[in-house]
Specification:
The protein is mainly beta and 127 residues long. The chain is 0% helix and 49% strand. Strand 5 and strand 6 form a beta hairpin.
Length: 127
Amino acid sequence: MTRILPLLLVAALATAGSAQTSGTISDDDPEFINGKPHDAYAVVLESGDELSITMTSTAVDTYLYLMSPSGRNIGYNDDCTQGDFEKSCLSFSAGQAGTYEVVATTYENGETGAYEIEILVNGEPAP
């Protein structure tokens, strides 16, 4: 069974039946790399699951990281296409079952603002 579990209550505000979740990067969020605030989402995957993540914002320069079940950085993306500061995307094929962490943050330190994130597993919204 594949499930998405928000690690931050703020990040848990999803519309029922929607793959898209609204969030806000704020100075009150925990720090990630280089002191950047972030929101994190736990996604439980089975071996062979296909994960697709898209983060969009008109307020911040988006940046995504994917962390393995052991906490190792296994993927990151700044811009889906070069120069598109409003959209980051990642695709991943799980080689092992476990709980992966999707980290939504910003490219620059000090950026704060609203964003949307879509997390799909095998082409379907993660429950």
